[in-house]
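Journal club side-thread
Mid-discussion, someone asked how the predicted structure for our own chain would compare to the paper's figures. Pasting it here so we can look after the session.
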Amino acid sequence: MDNPNTVTVRWQERRLSKKGIQPVGSRRRRAALKSTSSIPFEQLPYQCFQEARKILLEDREKKLKQIEEERKRIAKTQSIPAIQLGGENTKKVKLVRMQKYLEHLKILADINDPVIKKRYEDGLGDMNRPIYRFLADREWRQYRRLITMQRINQMHVIPDVLPHLDPTVEVTLWFGRRKIPPGNLVDSRISETPANLKVQVFDRGERLLSVIVVDPDVPNLETDEFLYRCHFLGVNIPIGPASPLLPLAPLSAESQVAIPWIPPHAQKGSPYHRMSTFVLQQREGEILDLQVVQEFLRDKAQFNLRSFRDRFLLKPIGVHMFRTVWDEGTAGVMSRAGIEGADIELRRPKPEKLPYKKKDSKRYR
């Protein structure tokens, strides 16, 4: 049986992936482990390394004592009547501040541990622990978040769909096994099936999300403008830091799916369509009534994410965007989905010519 810690051949990696087992770390790391003795990382026989670990362990013990003291302070504050602290709101704000400081101490206790860093780089970190959430959030903000924000600002998804967005969760999108980078052009045959999302949150606790896929580039030939079209709308979707996978196909049609997946498509001659996926967080403990959501959508002539967000008091926390254009498979996709308009080609009207004016012949004498 292939060992995920030492496999180095591509076909063996694919065989492991088909079984649902991902190879650990990079191929270079696995090749190094395969050619060396299996000494545990924390027992490596290097004097400098072991002396440094002793210093780090002493510092961690100090942080653990501070954590215990902070927990006692929080318990003591919780037992004090709110009236002695200036009211219920003042007490709540103080407890939130103390809890935030406690989480910061938990991160400081583990941030310098080489074993923690090794497990995170190998992809074995437990996202229920604050330190791994902190490391993942920092890595995302250093590069991948910047790329996403560049794409949605460069292509004017913001403010065309929403006036403002500050993403706090990472949204990754797949079609089958194909990962779609933000802003990429996707073949209509690939996007015909519902997408799979990975919504990685970086704070603790589960929450309910709404996922909305919007196309803001639907041409309206009568008014010569663009309209919005909702390609998917799902509500009441539970997500946590350790359970980020969100396939859209298996969601319940009775309590979660308000608008089922409509394959992305663009008519021939129209510019590319920006398929924007927005993740919105519902209020804590609130479950949206699917019938109320569907009635709200029926009352609207066209879908508008701003009004939907305001009506159900949702908070946008994540975004992803890919593009679709007319290609050789679009007509078949539209036919299988029962969408009309595949036989229509859009053309821009030619500008009116300026009236002919005879030039003055004196200029050429």
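Post-session note: Residues 13 and 19 are 10 Å apart (CA to CA).
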